[in-house]
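--- STAGE predict ---
source: upstream dedup step, 1 unique chain passed
mode: sequence only
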Amino acid sequence: MDTKRIVLLIIFSTSLLFLWDAWIKEQERLDKQAVTQQNGAVTGNAQPSHDAPPVPGETLVTSQAESDTSQIPVAGSPTESVTPRLLATGEQIRVVTDMVIAEIDTVGGDLRRLELLHHPSTESKDIPYALLQSQASRIYVAQSGLIGEGMPNHKTVYRPESDRRNYEMSTSEDEIVIRLLAPDLDGVQVVKTYTFRRNSYVIDVGFEVENLGASTVRPFAYFQMLRDNNPPSGTTMMIPTYLGAAIYTEEEKFQKIHFSDLDKSKADYPANADNGWIAMLEHYFLSAWLPPQQTPREFFAKRQSDELYTAGVITPIGAIEPGQVVRSAVPLYAGPQEQDKLAELAPGLELTVDYGWLTVIAVPLFWLLSFYYSWVGNWGVAIILLTMTVKFLFFPLSAAGYRSMARLRLVTPKLQRIQEQYKGDRQRMHQAMMDFYKVEKINPMGGCLPILVQIPVFIALFWTLLAAVELRYAPFALWITDLSTPDPYYILPVFMGISMFIQTKLNPTPTDPIQAKVMQIMPLAFSIFFFFFPAGLVLYSLVNNVLSIAQQWQITRMYGSPAAATTAAAAPAKTSEPVEAPEPAAAPTPAKAKASDSAATDSKAGEKRTRGKKRG
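--- STAGE serialize ---
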């Protein structure tokens, strides 16, 4: 039983360490941000950074067999410096579909803002969530351009082909196409296009290149996300979630590209492939460039400036002969992390739902959760059913653990007497306890091992509920109107603390007084943590505790009640009375041995005389 307490203490201590580390990092980030803003205010935000278009590497260039590389920029060429926090602006083109509200800027033809109509913001249920933004406090935009001599890039000023600046998808339309004209340079006309489709978060971003000159051109296209490292609103340090870039290829599979690694120039990821995608991730949402499969590409990720990063892909457009028109496009997915839909868009895209190293367990758990939701139509009820299912599957292990704890609870007073008897000699105390366990046929690890086996499953279930975007603004009942945010009245955390307190009372009292005090404090400490947890996670934990209490109470009643102990004592043929390990008997001295032998001889002689008198 002491081993189980030690395991719980380790888990508790580790949780506190992670929380403390997250708090320290959050404070450092806020301090760093404040210093940056202060410096920007003093210098007029004149913090230069190299914001030139990316340069294709030698591998991608040489993959084009007949490429004339004379027009391709080389790495290290002089580039213009800009101030990324003050992105230049031009005319705004607004697009409204049944899924998004988008704003395209004529400077660079960037997608500067994207609001998701079916996903409310954290601040208000009536305001759509803004995934892409462009302002002093928040930069997250999608940029694209061409690489080559005189080719337009994300700093070129485009001209809309149409006089319209506002587009709204009608019931009769299935798509909206925006065409932006680049300045005609050296006989090459470039049109940048955006295609929005009904019932889709996928936006096709492409280029239409017409060669009106006399020589062949061979441009490359690049597509990138530019964003800062500020977490989205509503993020708390109590719930750690990933913010950064990610990449997937068939050879290397899914990999995260941490901003901290980009800061240190230590990011390791596959640069060249003919498959895969690159993305920017945040809690519940992502944006990803999805080039067509089996086409050459080069991935890149870099730090643009302090707290500003890019991640993207370069693709070759190919040779364009004089008089020829070539079109090239790469889909951009910008929307929620809906696992079942992501898998249909590109291989491995569903892995952006961050389940950590327990993905293999979390995926079937989410499938089961979705199945229950399709059945009952309420995510809170689905969480309860899922928790009950997992608890039922682990019933044999839990029952074995609780039986062991019930028997330990029954003999705890005798263990305490043994500890008191040998409190000055720990080695003899442990030996006496082991002998006692053997006599009683009790495994002291019996209550711990079944719990350890279940821990990965329950952690996976924790991350499943934490990462599920479907729980955003999902109501349960009464005052719980959003399972992804903390309980507004802290009712569930209070009940959670009460359930943990009841569990500690059902468990055997630790023989160590320090451990006993820690176990009394743990329900209160964990209740405070649960004040900051999403209501869906607290609901899962509360239901799990209630089921554990019911199961533990029943098993304790069957195996550890005083009535059961009395019955066991009255049936010696079936059970043996636990005995304390006695002190070893001291060896008798020679004098005492002789006296004892003499007394025994006299006693036998007296018995013979008594029997003789009776016969007479």
